[in-house]
Amino acid sequence: MTTPVNIMLITADDMEGTTPGAFGGPDGVTPRLDALATEGMVFDRAHVAIAVCQPSRSAIMTGLWPHRNGAEGFEPIDDGVPLLTELLADAGYATGILGKVNHLQPIDRFGWDTAVGITGLGMGRDPRRYADETAAFIGTAGDRPWFLMVNAHDPHRPFHGADDVGRFFDEQQRAGIPEPSRIFTPEEASPLPGYLPDLPDVRTEYAQYLSSSRRCDDVVGGVLDVLDAAGLADTTLVVFLSDNGMAFPFSKANCYLQSTHTPLIVRWPGVVEPGRREHEEFVTMLDLFPTFCEVAGLTPRETDGRSLLAALRGADVPAREQVVTVFHETSMGRRYEMRCVQDARYGYIWNGWADGSEEYRAENMIGLTWPAMVAAAESDAALAERVAFYRTRVVEELYSLDEDPASLVNLADDPAHAPELREKREALRSWMAATGDPLRDRYESLVSSAA
């Protein structure tokens, strides 16, 4: 009989896919994640289903698209939708969660044996508390196999060193948050992501974000050290990812490449060859649900993903050549329906909400960066055009991702790219039909009228 495998799922909160050094990020930000990448397998084309916290996590834990699990925004998962923890508990697993407990609803249905919320973890930012709670959970699991979801609250706002920390935490809460093991200066915040303008306040805020990313890395190091000390590193499947891109304009709460690209790392000694890198295949985080089920010897009733187990073991499997991502609702409850199809060359976005007058507003526009962009736009015509575009968008966007990964030049109206536009429209239409997307009739009307 196969020995059950322990599973540790570590998530960052709002860490962009290219932030870790192993994914091309700035030097010195994520030393523990970079080391983890050398010990396991890295996926360069991994995407979350939706770029906002709760629905992204709900999709991971159900293996279903948000419109199929009921959690399009910040509402509970529908009754009757199987949850990963329910299946694992039935198979004898102990289940635990550290941080982001309220972002998987309904809490009671998840049936956690151990659940430690944000206040018990230094507002989700204290590596020592994460380590202590990880050790305690492993101890209470006893002889049972276990699943532990470790959710760092970094680098979610408020960033380390930001002036608006009081907007999020009171004085007592702030006192319990340790500093990152390294703090970055604006001069060290280089290079900036290509979709952001190089302005002083943008560079300052990006440095704060990098400092918070380093503290997330400290949390990762703390829990991995516990595994080592317990002698469980060689018998535990460790998966790291971020729930969505960083909370800056043109990233989180959108459907751009940087919105959904996640830094997926998988370490499984004796199964996954250290140092492997998957450059070509597109992976969706819906794939984790069937993967974890298969690892535990379970067969899920229904899933929109596909197990990665064969690929992790080094088998030659048919590659997924494109990925679909979606967006429905911001954390403030504003609806902005978006759908996206991306392959190795092009990214296509349908903005179902864009009507030329409604304005986009989301949490990625608080802080320093968006006001700096708006102010600079008064004397910069190109930036003024970009700011106006971000506010109202257009119905369709098409980007040449190999030439323009920052999605700066919309090619949807370029006759030279009409074939790619038609191809992506058809791909999205097929996906909407196959998954029962509730907006498929509206999209069908758009495509028919454009034909």
From TrEMBL:
Domain Sulfatase N-terminal: 6-297
Keywords: Hydrolase
UniProt cross-references to SUPFAM superfamilies, sorted A to Z: Alkaline phosphatase-like
Annotated InterPro entries: Alkaline_phosphatase_core_sf (IPR017850), Sulfatase (IPR050738), Sulfatase_N (IPR000917)
Similarity comment: family membership: Belongs to the sulfatase family.
Name of the featured protein: Sulfatase
Organism of provenance: Agromyces indicus
